[in-house]
Amino acid sequence: MSTYRLNNLLAPRSVALVGASARPVSVGRAVLENVRKAQFKGRFGLVNPRHAEIGGMAAVKSLDALDFVPELVVITAPAREIPGIIDQAGRRGTAGALIVSAGLGHGPGSLHEAAIAAAGKYGMRLIGPNCLGIMMPGVSLNASFAAHMPGAGSLALISQSGAIAAGMVDWAAQRGVGFSGIVSIGDQIDVDIADLLDYFAMDHKTRAILLYIESIKDARKFMSAARAAARVKPVVVVKSGRMAQGAKAAATHTGALAGADAVYDAAFRRAGVLRVSDLRELFDCAETLGRVESPTGKRLAILTNGGGIGVLAVDRLVELGGIPATLSAEAREKLDAALPPTWSGANPVDIVGDADAARYAAALEVLLADRDNDAVLVLNVQTAIASAAEIAATVTELVGKYRKEHSRWAKPVLAAWVGADQQIIQALSGAGVPNYPTEDDAVRGFMHLVRHREVVEELSQVPPAMPDTFVPDARGAREIVTAAIADGREWLEPVEIKNLLEAYDIAMVPTYAAADVEQAVGYANEIFAQGGTVVLKIMSRDITHKSDVGGVVLNLTTPDAVRGAAANILARAKKLRPEARIGGVIVQAMVVKAKARELILGLADDPTFGTVVVFGRGGTAVEIINDKALALPPLDLQLARDLIDRTRVSRLLKAYRDVPAVKQDAVAMVLVKLAQMAADIPEIREFDINPLLADETGVTAVDARVAVGPPQRKFAGSGPANFAVRAYPSQWERRLKLKDDWRIFARPMRPEDEPTIHEFLRHVTPHDLRLRFFAPMKEFTHEFIARLTQLDYARAMAFIAFDEATGEMVGVVRLHSDSIYESGEYAILLRSDLKGRGLGWALMQLIINYAKSEGLKVISGDVLKENTVMLEMCRQLGFEVKPDPAEPDICDVKLTL
Q1: For the CA atoms of 88, 94, 100, 103, what is the dihedral angle to 10 degrees?
Q2: pLDDT at site 1
Q3: HSE-CB of 335 using CA atoms within 13 angstroms
Q4: What pLDDT score does 247 carry?
Q5: Are 207 and 232 in contact (CB under 8 A)?
Q6: 474-586 under CATH 3.40.50.620, yes or no
Q7: Fold for domain 730-896?
Q8: Alpha-carbon distance 347 to 178, whole Å?
Q9: What pLDDT does 245 receive?
Q10: What is the rounded distance in angstroms from the CA atom of residue 336 to the CA atom of residue 342?
Q11: Helices 439-459 & 307-319, crossing angle to 10 degrees?
Q12: 8 Å CB contact between 291 and 472
């Protein structure tokens, strides 16, 4: 999350190249020529101890010999020299280095470690090593060995592959697509994907961010940065290694289902990142996102001179979840008047193969004015009758005029000229019209825009409130797990699993552990006495899947049947798995629900993203059916519903024929509870409930397996160390007693607090709102409040205070950390009619204590000079108060922790 000094590296005012070579065919020489060709406007110097001149440019022997201090040092020197070069640059005050060279190695004693240590002494930032370099058209800097320099534009590309970055530059040159920046990150010795996401998310020149990823090192940092960036602009990723499987063999069904790529897919979805499958689709995304804004809906109108290609476009649109726009009566009437009677009369608007530029213009004008569509796709199949180039010129002129008249409210217009020559492509691209080689590519481009809008909406949704009745016995559940680990066991026993599920209010069939045949008969008699039937299962820590050894017998109705079945199960297991430890048999009540659906729910452990929640169709053939979806915890009800909806079995949860629908949210609540269990008990490594029977009465777990072990700290910082997304920090809930015995309940803000915030703001005067936001605030939109309430708790915290007697919200205080998590900026707002009762003081102390617990070193804030009450409270709390040198009406306040 560190943007510290990145502006110095990516928009430097001065650059030095260390290691430029006199050899014409070398990386150092290529970088030198690229910097010169790009005509970098700042100061530029060469450092080479063996050559006084390279390519007609003077060089000095060392950085110390330069007559200026370079903000950025670009290093193409041999690996062994790099730590010394960084140390020398740091002593001079250089902000950072771009290490193009490879060969630094890894591990203790390596040049890699030495370079980090040298940079750390001076707070320098490092990009690379082993990278293509950086290309920043906005500042005319091409510090790379790529073959071309991209033009200026609004796309940022962050790539783990230098070859992919170079390929994007070549493609962009052909299509007239420009970039705000291209960064090849190489081995990510310091600056990583998350840092650059933070940087480009705040860069006003960047409209969309493209990522090429091979692997992620710090999942929590990536998730926090990606979620923050995706809220404000499209983030598109292509990841290689889609077919790779998890690094370890899974012991449970859920573990087997949670392959590595499926987890990455779940992470990208949770972060609001748009995933594409290959470079061609990434190019299409760049084509679309680099030119137009997302539409307000997904109704697409299609204008074409070929009926077949129009129908293909509609087919693909529907397949991808778009909606073919319906023509309004007014639009149809106008088209009837402007077009020959042979036109299609519907969408796609087929204006027939002999359509010329004038006919295209007449139809396009009608579609642009029609409010029953959200975007227009113009298709052209070249014919000998009308000039495709003339049609393209007319379309671009009309689109330009339309955009000028409608400004930011203009709907997107996309194009596909099949078989178009480069001149037509350049004409469309030059006019800012996204264009594609086929109708399929164009429709996908449109759906990328739609998906981004949907992502932003999803990230700002207010999830439903959790039922107040769900209060798990986390302490009791933790005791079950820790006792098993202390006993040296890796798996919980069946009765322990039943007790664990009961602690989280998840129903399971009556379950008993019988050490021998006669004990099994005794437990079975208890079930028979209640009118039930019995199922027996082998009980062994070493037999993962019971059915593999015939270890499950169903529908037992008599003691003799139980006796015989138990004896057979034990004998068969000993014969087929003589090495396995056999603990006896599990005796369960047989649940017969003819119309119940068999589901699988569970937790798996991923080496990169930690705990993952799995949901899908259950049963013994679960891996073969492979109907599953994954999500990163924590979950709320809406996220759980989304997880369920991504599977085919979700359709069976609805009513059909004589089968009633599954009880509303019964399955979703189990998923939420499992996610909470994973947060409370990080010792749980894997968890299978298979099957979970679901019907109109609710859900019941029939069988489950739980793997446990000492907790593994995957992620630094507070919150569950096994979660890539920080969970709701319930440990920070506080009850406060203020003046006159006023009792306050303060807790971290939650997404579902949005309605509460709106109500609270009705009790704050315009004057107090101006003091808080530094400007008059007449309206608070859903989007504005959603940004305040949608916290990931990794970089921001807000405490919301309630009057315990009335339940009304009375105040809020928030803290947002800086990019290197050393300091945080606070803000506070109280109900205007409740000021002066000690609430502000209490909330400020709470946020200060939180900042200390997170390891922050400084809390700061901006306060209007006229806000004398806040300034006085800051002084009493120990803040240093100083006038802002740039803003005469503002005071800077700072507290060293």
Answers
A1: 40
A2: 40
A3: 26
A4: 39
A5: no
A6: no
A7: Aminopeptidase (3.40.630)
A8: 33
A9: 46
A10: 10
A11: 30
A12: no
